[in-house]
Automatic annotation (TrEMBL):
Protein name: TonB-dependent receptor
Similarity comment: family membership: Belongs to the TonB-dependent receptor family.
Residues annotated as domain TonB-dependent receptor-like beta-barrel: 439-890
Topology class, membrane: Multi-pass membrane protein
Residue stretches spanning the membrane: none
A Pfam family: Plug
PANTHER family: PTHR47234, TONB-DEPENDENT RECEPTOR
Keywords per UniProt: Cell outer membrane, Membrane, Receptor, TonB box, Transmembrane, Transmembrane beta strand, Transport
Keyword Transport: yes
PROSITE patterns in the record: TONB_DEPENDENT_REC_3 (PS52016)
């Protein structure tokens, strides 16, 4: 049987995502190739008369400390130029990294929209999907302080990268611990800013969405003076400011079209407005005995709502199969939250270089950034208590006149589960600030090229509750005395009380500091058949410090919906890191070249790690380059892994096999959200890895370049916790981690960081470039960058089976089989245009959420492929003035439906999709030279 496409043609359902993706990519490239061939004959004489290309300059490429031609490297490096950034219409480093096919499952603003979540505001990269903590992010080849808030992920906040100052981005798709040390298992992303600039450049950018919300405005100014060659100095600065508007669920048509209440009613909330009443068993039995009717029927559940079946839509619904049940209301928080946060970002970068003499220079670099983001979730929920006599519909039911089965008076007090819309949505302001100061010197001494620098880098994170969080004691008192009405509008007195107990407090404050002194030196040693043997040596001494503070108000446990962490405390930790490394370049012949490197790091308290690497290139002809590398890497445990205070949280809805065995495996009675305690471990050792890559670069003509690179990563001694689902699924092995009370019920599950298990990931990176094709209609170019993952799986503990997350959502995310970015370019005189496509293949959904009302498991789903098209055009009014306009998400594609239950936002996966829809933007650039 075949499935019919929208155009009426048919496609086999067996056809793989890779086949579809590659066919789409090659088809697009073929269009440009055909245009190129049309113009080749007509312009042959013009091409013959072209000036000889300039001699390529040897530069330092990410992954090597020795300068060489970009094409000579044995390691696969993708380079994103400033022109490509402009064509894409992106203004932040996070938006740029979302277009890199090898970046899978990084942390995003969408995933940060939650209540009391870990590391909110952290935007990260995740090469190969092996973890944010295993992707090293550099700025001009040097480290930055990691995002300071403690959590499971360690890495640089992409919000702190000065996007407007970028000259290019180099993405090393291979492990690089042999040169850079820890965190480089998945690869390295080096954001490279302008090194010198003369003149003044002004940029302005504005964008808006078709359906409203999430508009953006940015301005930047770049100014520089001094020519290093003639004046002996250069100093320049870049200032960039951005502002993005909020986007609420009410502004997007695709949200109701997801049909979350019908599909995922069990993920919704029983805290509603008007409030649900949670009866005790005795209260329910008494109401049944006195013939109390609700919606014309006797009640059957302990949870009731006096407003059914109306329930105050659109967020509060009568959903008998939802969490509110047949006698209550269910709250759909996807009708009452934000999809994209309001934010303000400011970045400043300045760099100065002074030439002391022909052999020596000194330089200084300052990078300052601040990102302030408002994360807005659903309105606050509260459990309150009030006397039944204050509820008119129940005032005459006589709770105070009857006794329960034990002869005790039935409780007068009612428990209400309410959603306090009058307090506003819960809003947290997350501010991430970064300061980075580098001073150094470069030059030549006795034939050695040297670079020595001192790096002081700071990241500060402030998490402030600003609205919708209330003082718990006064809130409950207001409910009890009737000032705050759980079932309708509150009185003026109640509204005044709500406003007076709003919390505006910096509840969490984290600061991370990194001070480093580094040096490297390189020189040619002797002539070999293919050039000079070259040696590089280097070293680093680094001091890392972290501080984490909790406010007194938070620790008083009196903020409704922002509970104090049990056992929480302020922490202050530090450690010293020392490292030396060396690299040797051996050009045996014009065809054969080897790269040998190794680095030894020693971490205070943790110990040492040796990381060797061998790379080899073979160029049998000018059209073919073969390359391979193999090496070992490591990831040192982060300060959070070692010293983070105990975190009290809960699992997803999971069954307890011990309890299930007593209730005929009825998930309605034996599955729930179990309490957990998550512990750090100061005895952790580094993770170890080994990497292997092998590839070929082909240049069959002056216009075409292809590359194919196979990569293979294996990590061992993983720093991880055993998943709560794995623990409950294998009690014979992990039962000692489940702590039970005297009734053999689960008290809490122990989740402790340990060195355990392994991870494997393999795949193929594919690139194709069409460049410099001149025709009578202009010059054409195209680029394809894709990643086909062959395997991605993780082993929780030695002896356990590997669990694959390839094309399947497992625990916290998915690694799609195929992802690509395609770009088609055209320019003719002052005009230019670009069309691009990003694609992620379909995959099996989480498919594990349990409905505790009836014990059913969510209906299996396969998430559809996600593809976005962008288009832009530019006009150079003059050499100084350039205009650009574009459309992002040209076909207004919505995120595909997902039943994932890991993130706060439901109905789709916010880690890789974009809820903004079709967007229009325009930019202007004016430069004074």
């Amino acid at each position: 049987m075949q499935a019919e496409k929208q155009d009426g043609s048919c496609v086999s359902p067996r056809e793989s995502a890779l086949a579809q993706g590659v066919r789409l990519a090659l088809g697009a490239l073929s269009v440009s190739a055909a245009l190129g061939m049309l113009g080749n004959g007509a312009l042959a004489q013009e091409q013959d008369g072209e000036a000889a290309p300039k001699k390529m300059q040897r530069v330092e490429i990410t992954g090597s400390a020795i300068k060489r031609l970009e094409s000579e490297t044995a390691l696969p490096v993708q380079i994103i130029t400033r022109a490509e950034i402009d064509k894409a219409g992106v203004t932040t480093a996070a938006e740029l990294m979302a277009r890199v096919s090898a970046n899978v499952g990084g942390l995003t603003d969408g995933a940060s929209i939650n209540i009391g979540g870990d590391q909110r505001g952290f935007n990260s990269a995740n090469l190969r999907g092996v973890g944010t903590s295993s992707t090293l992010v550099l700025l001009n080849g040097r480290r930055m302080a990691n995002f300071a808030s403690p959590g499971d992920d360690a890495g640089v906040d992409l919000n702190n990268i000065p996007a407007a100052a970028l000259q290019r981005v180099e993405v090393l798709l291979d492990g690089a611990s042999a040169l850079y040390g820890t965190d480089a298992i998945g690869g390295v992303i080096n954001f490279i800013t302008r090194k010198d600039y003369q003149g003044v450049e002004l940029n302005a950018y504005g964008s808006g969405t078709q359906e409203g919300g999430a508009g953006k405005r940015t301005v930047s100014i770049t100014a520089g003076t001094g020519d290093l060659a003639t004046d002996g100095y250069n100093i320049f600065a870049v200032l960039d400011a951005q502002q993005t508007d909020r986007l609420s669920t009410s502004q997007r048509k695709f949200i109701p079209n997801l049909n979350v209440p019908e599909r995922l009613g069990h993920l919704l909330s029983s805290f509603t407005s008007p409030a649900n009443i949670r009866l005790s068993g005795a209260q329910r039995d008494h109401l049944q005995e006195v013939g109390f009717l609700l919606n014309g029927k006797p009640i059957t559940n302990r949870q009731i709502n006096l407003s059914i079946p109306d329930c105050n839509p659109p967020a509060n619904l009568y959903l008998p199969n939802g969490t509110g049940g047949v006698d209550g209301c269910t709250y759909d928080y996807m009708r009452d939250t934000e999809l994209y946060p309001k934010s303000e970002k400011q970045n400043f970068l300045s760099r100065g270089v002074l030439k002391l003499n022909p052999e020596h220079q000194v330089y200084a670099e300052v990078a300052l950034s601040r990102s302030r983001t408002n994360y807005v979730a659903s309105s606050t929920r509260v459990i309150g208590y009030l006397d039944y006599s204050k509820v008119p519909q129940l005032a005459n039911t006589g709770f105070d006149t009857i006794l329960d089965d034990d002869g005790k008076q039935v409780e007068r007090e009612l428990e209400v589960r309410m959603r306090l819309k009058e307090a506003g949505n819960r809003t947290s302001e997350l501010t991430s600030e970064s300061q980075r100061f580098v001073v150094g010197a470069t030059g030549t001494v006795a034939g050695w090229d040297y670079d020595v620098g001192l790096n002081h880098s700071v990241n500060t994170v402030r998490d402030r509750d600003t609205k919708g969080y209330l003082l718990k004691d006064k809130l409950r008192a207001g409910i009890a005395d009737g000032s705050i009405n759980p079932f309708g509008p509150s009185s003026a007195e109640g509204l005044a009380l709500i406003e007076s107990i709003q919390v505006n407090d910096e509840v969490r404050h984290a600061r991370g500091v990194m001070d480093a002194l580094d040096f490297k030196a390189s020189r040619a040693l002797m002539a070999m058949g293919g050039g000079d043997m070259a040696l590089a040596v280097g070293g680093e001494v680094r001091r890392e410090r972290t501080q984490f503070r909790l406010s007194k108000l938070l620790m008083s446990n009196n903020i409704n919906d922002d509970s104090a962490p049990e056992g929480g405390k302020d922490t202050s930790d530090s450690r010293t890191v020392q490292a030396i490394y060396s690299e040797l370049l051996l050009p045996f012949t014009k065809q054969w070249q080897a790269q040998l490197s190794g680095r030894y790091d020693h971490y205070q308290q943790v110990g040492g790690a040796l990381s060797p690497k061998v790379g080899l290139t073979y160029m049998p002809s000018k059209q073919v380059l073969m390359r391979a590398s193999t090496g070992k890497g490591f990831r040192a445990p982060s300060m959070s892994d070692l010293h983070r205070p105990t975190v009290y949280s809960s699992t997803a809805t999971l069954p307890d096999p011990v309890l299930c065995a007593t209730v005929d495996n009825n998930y309605a009675d034996c599955a729930q959200n179990w309490d957990t305690r998550r512990y750090s471990n100061d005895k952790l050792k580094p993770e170890r890895s080994r990497q292997f890559t092998a590839g070929v670069v082909l240049e069959p003509s002056q216009h075409w370049t292809f590359s194919f690179d196979y990569w293979n990563i294996k990590r061992t001694d993983l720093i991880s916790e055993i998943g709560d689902d794995i623990i409950l699924g294998n009690l014979a092995k992990y039962g000692d981690l489940v702590h039970r009370n005297k009734d053999n019920e689960i008290d809490y599950i122990e989740l402790r960081k340990e060195n355990r298990g392994a991870q494997k990931a393999t795949g193929i990176d594919i690139t194709a470039d069409l460049h410099g094709v001149k025709t009578a209609w202009g010059r054409f170019g195209a680029h394809l960058s894709g990643t086909y993952v062959l395997d991605s799986k993780i082993q929780t503990s030695p002896g356990d089976a590997f669990i694959s997350n390839l094309n399947k959502f497992v625990t916290d995310g998915v690694v799609q089989r195929w992802r690509h970015t395609i770009t088609l370019d055209w320019d003719h005189g002052p005009y230019s245009a670009s069309l691009s496509n990003t694609y992620s293949s379909s995959y099996d959904d989480q498919n594990s959420a349990i409905n505790t009302d009836d014990g059913s498991v969510v209906k299996p789903n396969r998430v559809k492929a996600y593809t976005l098209w962008d288009m832009s055009g530019a006009y150079a009014v003059s050499k100084q003035f350039k205009l650009r306009a574009g459309i992002q998400n040209l076909f207004n594609t919505s995120p595909p439906y997902s039943n994932q239950a890991y993130f706060f936002l439901s109905g789709y996966d916010p880690t890789y999709t974009d809820p903004r829809g079709r967007r229009f933007y325009a930019s202007a650039n004016y430069s004074f030279k």
